[in-house]
Design brief:
Layout lengths: L5 E4 L17 E4 L3 E2 L5 E2 L4 H7 L2 E2 L6 H20 L5 H6 L1
Parallel strand pairs: 1-2, 2-5
Antiparallel strand pairs: 3-4
Length: 95
């Protein structure tokens, strides 16, 4: 972890990667989302320390979630477009 230029963490354990472990200048993608007893949402990376070390880090909440939704929408549009194209399986089946 301490040598990674790009660090992707998806463990679902709050703070499993302490910010001190993040290599200075690394890019950190924190996929984890954990609800704490006080209601806060936090990631798998110790954000406050990691943000001082990383060149870029996704926040939790608001980091990868919006990208997931955007990608899902793009894929849905592309699938619908492909389904309406002659020669594709769904087009033939639905007609």
């Amino acid at each position: 972890i301490q040598e990674a230029d790009i660090l992707v963490v998806a463990v679902s354990r709050p703070g499993v990667v302490p910010g001190e472990w993040v290599k200075p200048g690394a890019v950190v993608i924190d996929v984890g989302i954990n609800r704490m007893d006080d209601g806060r949402l936090v990631g798998d990376v110790g954000f406050e320390v990691a943000r001082q070390r990383a060149s870029w880090i996704t926040p939790v909440p608001g980091g990868v979630g919006p990208m997931t939704v955007a990608t899902l929408m793009q894929n849905t549009i592309e699938a619908a477009d492909a389904a309406d194209t002659p020669g594709h399986g769904l087009y033939t089946w639905a007609r």
